[in-house]
Amino acid sequence: MSAKEALEIAISKDLDLVKIAPNATPAVCKIMDYGKYCFEQTKREKEARKNQKVVEIKEIRMFSTIDTNDFNTKVNQAAKFLKGGDKLKVSVRFRKRAIAHPQLGEELLEKFKEAVAEFGAVDKPSKMEGRALVMFISPKSTK
To answer: Global pTM?
Structure first.
């Protein structure tokens, strides 16, 4: 039907005539309540945003000379972060001449990796960045 007839029908039903495909021949139109359509569209977008989970990267810093109880505290914090669905950046910092023994940091990260193995898996293996040894751990999927 012609656009004029469609517009008359839309006005008689107190609705709007909306062009769906204006480049098609003939142009495709739809008779609808445009305000209600826009409201439902924004409602759907809000609902989709609400269901999204933003993954944060939490950092745990240790020194190569960390003690047992401090280490256990760091492991508990890491477990809490991984259960919450956040990624983890574990860094071992070297002070002064401790950088001459990077194997101590490697051993510490290996021990840390084994301690949090049930909550997460290693994303990127350990690597030196300046005076710190860094490793990334991502949470295990709960599906």
So the answer is: 0.58
